[in-house]
Amino acid sequence: MVRGAGAAAALIVTWEHSSPSVSAAATARHPLCFTGARVVAAKSTTNGSRRQGWRPGTSTGETGPVLGYFGPAGTFTHQALRTVTQEEALAFASVREALDAVRAGVIRGAVVPIENSVEGGVSATLDELIASSPLAIRGEIVIPVEFGLYARPGTRLEDVRQVLTHGHAAAQCREWLVTQLPAAAVTEAGSTAGAAAEVARPGSRYDAAVCARVAGQLYELDELAYQIEDNPGAVTRFVEVGPAGSVPERTGADKTTLVAFMRADHSGALLEILEQFAVRGVNLTRIESRPTKTTLGSYCFSIDAEGHVQDKRVGEALEGLHRVCPTVHFLGSYPRADGGRPSIAVGFSDEEFDAAAAWVDGLFGG
């Protein structure tokens, strides 16, 4: 149990490591579907080993080339998926299982979260993208993170004493909860959608759930308040991940994602990596370190860069990384969700790269 200080002292957070269960009756009343799409929950065989999260042949959804996503239904990831397809989709209990299903060929791709404007990068996704055989990002989706308070029909705001939600949602709505529900205890669930499912269950000890509107609608709950997040304008970025292979054609408004490993821990090691982009006029939109999981102090760098691998400046930057890094994981070039085009400085356009190469060729008496 964690208590805040000062004005926040009234907000009580109780940590529960397992998600509340949903009864069979509640499941029958609230089928896992949204906007006409059938969602099939993929069966897991996770038993603690590194790569046994998914076993082919255990889901009715495998009869066709469907997409998967980090579930359950009613989450922001589900909402992002709906912008990609309205067809049947497989919900997975973890990012690892979703990406392993892509590797196994069970699904043609998976939608998973990768970055939040408040919480930063999603570690599970960043690590799992390079944990086994290569995968490729084919596109990105950015959606606003807007939370509401949802309760069983007939519940009033002043009646709420027990709130259930995911830990990240509780953190992002902390000020509102302290101000509007000072006497309420907030309990952490495995997901905001799972919290909504539990609150919808008749006889649940929880009065309300903090979740996305899609989850409140999915479980037929009443909306007691909306847009209760402390950071209006917050967004989460999701990526559609598929098998490594062909790269989408460049659009002029693209992004490239990669992971670069340092050759050795020494002064200027990170600078060597950054210089490959800087000297070619490539702007980075994200860079963060991740442990290599080998020894203490050993890190790799997950990077998003403006541009497409077919752009001369980006392609040459990757060539430079290949020279100075022992390992570079290219995770794809794909259209940007915001359609933003990079500002290319003088000297860094494809035409200028071609002209420079032609000039060098001419030095040999062409």
Describe the overall structure.
The protein is of the alpha/beta class and 366 residues long. The protein has three domains: 2-16 and 146-226, D-Maltodextrin-Binding Protein, domain 2 (3-Layer(aba) Sandwich); 31-145 and 234-241, Periplasmic binding protein-like II (D-Maltodextrin-Binding Protein, domain 2), CATH 3.40.190.10; 246-356, Alpha-Beta Plaits (2-Layer Sandwich), CATH 3.30.70.260. The protein has eleven helices and 19 strands. The protein has helices at 24-29, 76-82, 95-103, 123-128, 167-172, 174-180, 192-200, 213-218, 269-278, 312-324, 350-362; strands at 2-3, 12-14, 33-34, 37-41, 67-70, 89-92, 109-116, 120-121, 135-144, 148-151, 162-166, 185-189, 208-211, 222-226, 235-243, 254-261, 284-291, 299-306, 328-335. The strands form three sheets. Strands 3, 4, 5, 6, 7, 8, 9 and 15 form an eight-stranded mixed β-sheet that branches. The longest helix is centred in the last third of the chain and has 13 residues, at 312-324. The chain is elongated and about 85 Å long. The model is unreliable at 1-41 and 43-64 (pLDDT under 50).
